[in-house]
Amino acid sequence: MTPDIARYIDHTMVKPDTSEAQIAQLCQEAIDYHLAAVAVNPVYVDMCSQMVLGSGVAVASAISFPLGATSTRVKSYEAQQAIEDGATELDMVINVGALKSSKYDVVQHDIAAITRICHDAGAICKVVIEAALLTDDEKVKACQLAESAGADFVTTSTGFGPGGAT
User: What CA–CA distance (Å, rounded) separates 98 from 68?
Assistant: First the structure.
């Protein structure tokens, strides 16, 4: 793998049965291959931050993963804790039910709250829209809401839904 391509890859391990040994291996591989980031569940952010320190590999944390069905207040707390533990990127899952209910103000407020926490700390906010659960129109709307809320990126899926992006 050429280093130019590798710098765009997030090495991810978010399965519920992930062990510390697997996280250590994930971090070492990210360092060895000069990957952009390791993306992990919040419980492993502190460990990863220590392991990749000084390597140029960022630490990303999943927020409200994998369902996106927690309140903005809970997502905000989780985001703040992940940043305090060393995450410099957050991958927040949107509230798909609110989007499907056309509660666009709720979805935008949710994204904006996490984006604000990220940007106040100099971190990146990525919004996971879970594309396999959405119609084409809902995908467009989710992206528009993420953009208007100031998010840095939109990603397609958690990997836990019925399918990925096509």
Answer: 10
